[in-house]
Amino acid sequence: MSLPGRRKSSLAGAGGGAGAGPFDTLGAKHGAPRKGGRLPVYVAGVFFVVFVIVMYGEDIRSVTLEPFARGVGPVRQQAVVVSDAGRAAATPRRDVLSSSSTGKKTVAPRRDVIASPERPVPVALPRDDGRERPGHAAAKTETAPERAIRKVTAPKVKKPKKAKRPRRLRPARKTVAAGVVLGSPETCDLSKGEWVFDNASYPLYREEECSFLTSQVTCMKNGRRDDNYQKWRWQPKDCDMPRFDAKVFMERLRNKRFMFVGDSLNRNQWESMVCLVQSAVSPDKKYVTWEDQRVVFHAWEFNATVEFYWSPFLVESNSDNPKIHSIPTRIIDAGAIAAHAQNWRNADYLVFNTYIWWMNTLNMKLKRPGGRDWEDHEEVVRIEAYRKVLSTWAGWVNDNIDPARTSVFFMSMSPLHLSPQVWGNPNGIRCAKETMPLVNWRGPIWLGTDWDMFKVASNITRAAAPRVPITFVDITTMSERRKDGHTSVHTIRQGQILTPEQQADPGTYADCIHWCLPGVPDIWNSLLYTRIMSRPDAATAALTAR
Ligand SMILES: *[C@@H]1O[C@H](CO)[C@@H](O)[C@H](O)[C@H]1NC(C)=O
Ligand SMILES: *[C@@H]1O[C@H](CO)[C@@H](O)[C@H](O)[C@H]1NC(C)=O
Ligand SMILES: *[C@@H]1O[C@H](CO)[C@@H](O)[C@H](O)[C@H]1NC(C)=O
Predict the structure, then answer these.
(1) Which one has a higher pLDDT value, 55 or 440?
(2) Do 235 and 135 sit in the same domain of this protein?
(3) Domain for residue 302, yes or no?
(4) According to the model, what pLDDT value does residue 538 have?
(5) Where does the record place the Trichome birefringence-like N-terminal domain (predicted)?
């Protein structure tokens, strides 16, 4: 099947002619993974290998002695991991050297290579050399749970070894202990990294313990058998992310409003955030309210809210009713945002997204400027319409947000997993029965993600609101590897949990857009947490100064 790209760029085949989308350039984009022009890095890597063999010979030995389910070379894995670190060591990295305004932060090197005494877990899964191909990938990834699990248990067993490593305590840890500012430097790119199986620290909460989860996302309750999808930690390449701490975060949110604005993926992330923080709030002092476009989690004793505001295109559209919106003809008013935006004004944190509703058709219907009603519209190429809408949005942010009070984030696109042949599982049906992330996969995956939209959003958030910093949060690349994380057939449809018959027909019923919770959106929120806690907060600073 040579046209996986065609189906992918439209949802459930709804958009005729979607194939003319970005994937017509498949050939052009299939070029070699970024490999060229790295000679100096490679040389530095070799030096670093020598250095590391001297320093960490013991670790390498212990890693190479681990049993592997198959012949993926542990030595090669080390070489790959080490040369990453080598690059880091060879180039003076700004993220290592830079510090926050308090001058207290530094970055620790990767921990997945060297298990730290404080965090008793993970070792990276073996990577291959990037030559993994669809067809081989399936067999390789399906054996990985055993491998992952075996590797995860290893460091815990070898307790004596850990005791010998005091030199690996790092300055970053002191920062955490001091409690002034947590997190990682802004310059550290959190989107580059890998998924590490970590069943000691994950999930961050239990599905059955968060009563605020809706049955759309409670996959285990809805019959899913495997739960490893809850146990993957995201390890950025160049720094560490602090573990989400509900108490610390709720203190930061005291007397504040935290608001997600966007489509159902942002609601998915809202549910995750509520579950992440709710354990810090006493049982009778928290509740959720629904009104019109808005769902609000109230943390009564903190005078704080975590809210979700429904506006799938950010600007006004004919699909803005959160309940009655399955309208085949979606029409956007690209210049009109005030009716929604007046509800965002007093938020202290604003987290926006808009993507999935753009993916049904190649062209979008835009209401004509000055048009009398929705009938008065024109068709505009998707990417141009997206640019227009985001410009309107960024203009509003620029003119209406007080950057001294409000932090603004834009979440990049949440990817879909509809075409298993793309990740080398020709017998798969959408994302059904996927139980492992693509841990060994290097380079791009052709899932139908519209990277042109990604670039537009990235550009606009950077440039179109000069008065107000907008943090563009790249969740796309990391989430593309999480084919295992979707709700699939363990979800609801029109308010009802899928029947056994429907569950048996994933080709029709699997939802490969939304995510199980606990799961991938918890990591997105950990990125937000990392960014927010990295920045000084006036109230917190005053407290700790005492
Ligand atoms: C992690 O997984 C391994 C392998 O399944 C298991 O032996 C171990 O008990 C698990 N640890 C935790 C904390 O669940
Ligand atoms: C509660 O929070 C709001 C902002 O969300 C603030 O305006 C108000 O003053 C707070 N109330 C108290 C009693 O601190
Ligand atoms: C993003 O901005 C860069 C530099 O300003 C520009 O070269 C590029 O064409 C822009 N891309 C898009 C998709 O707008």
Answers:
(1) 440
(2) no
(3) yes
(4) 53
(5) 186-240
Q: Which of 9, 83, 191, 264 is catalytic?
A: 264
Look up tokens 């790249």; give the residue: 474
Residue identified by tokens 């006004």 is 316
Higher pLDDT, 257 or 445: 257
Among the bound ligands, the one closest to the CA of 296:
2
Q: Are residues 333 and 452 in the same domain?
A: yes
Nearest CA among 195, 291, 267 for reference residue 487:
267
Domain CATH number, residue 526: 3.40.50.1110
Task: List Cβ neighbours of 404 (8 Å cut-off, separation of 6 or more).
Answer: none
| 496-522 pLDDT tens trace | 999 999 999 999 999 999 999 999 999
* Rounded mean pLDDT, 151-173: 38
At 38, is the pLDDT very low, low, confident or very high (cuts 50, 70, 90)?
very low
Model confidence at 146, in pLDDT bands (50, 70, 90)? very low
- pLDDT, position 327: 61
133/278 same-domain check: no
Using the mean position of ligand 3's atoms as its centre, give its distance from the Cα of residue 338 in Å: 27
Residue to mutate, 121, 146, 149, 157, ligand 1, most ligand atoms under 8 Å from C-beta? 149
Name which of 540, 531, 435, 419 is nearest 475 in CA terms. 531
The Cβ of residue 103 has, within 10 Å, a number of other Cβ atoms equal to 8
Residue 317 sits in the same domain as residue 402: yes
- Tell me, yes or no, whether 52 lies in a domain: no
Query: What is the reported pLDDT for 407?
Result: 97
| CA atoms 247, 249, 252, 253: torsion sign | negative
Distance 199 CA to ligand 1 centre (A): 6
Domain holding 120, by residue range, is 74-150
**Is 534 assigned a catalytic role?**
no
Q: Are residues 124 and 234 in the same domain?
A: no
Handedness of CA 189, 190, 194, 200 (dihedral sign): positive
Question: Per the domain annotation, does 28 fall within a domain?
Answer: no
The one catalytic residue in 184, 514, 526, 534 is 514
What spacing in Å lies between the alpha carbon of 258 and ligand 2's midpoint? 13
**298 counts as catalytic:** no
Is residue 56 predicted with pLDDT exceeding 50?
Answer: no
Does the Cβ of 456 fall within 6 Å of ligand 1? no
Reported as a single tens digit per residue, the pLDDT across 318-338 is: 989 887 766 678 999 999 999
Taking CB atoms and a 6 Å cutoff, what residues make up the pocket around ligand 3? 452, 455-456, 459
Residue 340 falls in the annotated catalytic set: no
DSSP 8-state secondary structure symbol assigned to residue 274 = H
Please indicate, yes or no, whether residues 134 and 235 belong to a single structural domain of this protein. no
Cα Rg of the chain, angstroms: 23
Q: Which is the closest atom of ligand 3 to the Cα of 459?
A: 1
Ligand nearest to the CA of 386: 3
pTM, two decimal places: 0.71
How many other CB atoms are there within 10 angstroms of residue 419's CB atom?
23
Could you give the number of structural domains in the chain? 2
